[in-house]
Write a structure and sequence with these properties.
Oligomer: single chain
Helix content: 40-55%
CATH superfamily: Glutaredoxin
Shape: globular
Number of strands: 4
Strand content: 15-25%
Strand order of the largest sheet: 2-1-3-4
Distance between the termini: 7 Å
Amino acid sequence: MNIQIFGSTKSFDSKKAERWFKERRIKYQYIDLVSKGLSPREYDSVRWKVGFEALVNTKCKAYDNLFMAYITPDAQEEKLLEHPELFNAPIVRNGKEATVGYHPEIWETWE
């Protein structure tokens, strides 16, 4: 298993995801989503698995400030890659598998 948690320090679900893997002694790599973001290849892999709508946090201030609701889908993807604070957290990856949010019922099937 090669677990990566893309999380945010302000996200309680990110902390819960880390705790879930720690309690099961499953090694994982934590990446700060806001400062590092996702590479275009990682983004494509996750988007293919979970869909674009699941990745975007429509409740954050940046969503309103960048007028995400009013721009084209292509422009939304560009803005998402430029402004990682728009991502929902945590994004948990295991190879080609991915989840957005806290989903231990799915992670258990990865073991």
